[in-house]
Amino acid sequence: MATTSSWVAHASREPSAGMIVALHEWIDDSVRLATATPGSCPFLADAVFAGIVAHTDRALHKRRQRPTFLSSKPCGLTALAGHGLRPMCDVIAHDEYGPEDLLVEHTGGASTLAEAIARATSAERSALVPVFTESEFMDADLFHLHTSRLLDPRDSGVVIPFMIVPGGQTDQDAQDREDVVRASGFTSYTFECDWEDFTLEDHTRLALLMEDVLDDIIQIKADAAARVLTFQPLWPLVEMRSTTPLA
């Protein structure tokens, strides 16, 4: 497992057309298989969540990082069943690093963001990817556990949060959310799409957004290592916004 000191910038940013198609097919297969399999993982049966997994895994794989995804959704898989291989092991026929399991953990009723931050400030050094709804993030009782200011830019692990934001909101709703995001020590990276019609162009946009997110994290880590940070940084938080209300 790579340590956080291995976070480096990459010159190549935009994935090839073939990679985009492969990711699109992996997401379709994930949703189809999980939906058709009794007792499967609902996290992988949702196109939004499967898209987060595929694109985050691609961006982290090239940096030799292995993500752990955190979901509050209950899972029907047994402890020994596992969630299959990580997407890049399927997409790349002969991955030089060999097969690696997809790591998805289910927190039950606990906040995935609070769990990720707590683990990143302890001994955990893998990339932690909590996925949560807007209402979970906006819970005032959890504000003190959702702040990125608990993270030490130099010594803590990396948290890459994803917030699921339904469509049909007012401008005031959006402003209230952004106020809390910034007060919590994050800055928003917004991806908006019609989940009922996720196109190849949408995949390309999401892939490039993930490059921006990781470049931001890399810069924070580099500045912290060089001891040139003069203030607490705003860490990236990805808002997955639907153009229509989610079911």
How would you describe what is shown here?
37% of the residues lie in helices and 15% in strands. The protein is of the alpha/beta class and 247 residues long. It has one domain: Thiamin diphosphate (ThDP)-binding fold, Pyr/PP domains (Rossmann fold), CATH 3.40.50. Strands 2-1-3-4-6-5 form a six-stranded parallel sheet, sandwiched between helices. Mean pLDDT is 89; it is low at 1-6.
List its salient traits.
single chain; 247 residues; alpha/beta; Rossmann fold; 6-stranded parallel β-sheet; 7 helices; globular; disordered N terminus
Roughly how many Å apart are the termini? 37 Å
Q: State the order of secondary-structure elements, H for helix, E for strand.
A: HHEHEHEHEHEHE
Q: Which topology does CATH recognise? A: Rossmann fold
Query: Which consecutive residue ranges, at least 5 long each, have pLDDT under 50?
Result: 1-6
Largest sheet: 6 strands, parallel
Number of continuous helical runs = 7
CATH class: Alpha Beta
How many strands appear in the DSSP assignment?
A: 6
Average pLDDT across residues? 89
What would you say the CATH architecture is? 3-Layer(aba) Sandwich
Rg over C-alpha atoms, rounded to the nearest angstrom:
17 Å
Biggest sheet, spatial arrangement of strands: 2-1-3-4-6-5
Shape: globular
Q: Find the CATH superfamily.
A: Thiamin diphosphate (ThDP)-binding fold, Pyr/PP domains
How is the secondary structure organized here?
Layout: H1 17-36, H2 47-61, E1 67-71, H3 87-91, E2 103-106, H4 112-120, E3 127-133, H5 134-137, E4 162-165, H6 171-183, E5 186-193, H7 200-225, E6 235-242
Parallel strand pairs: 1-2, 1-3, 3-4, 4-6, 5-6
Helix pairs in contact: 1-2, 1-7, 2-7
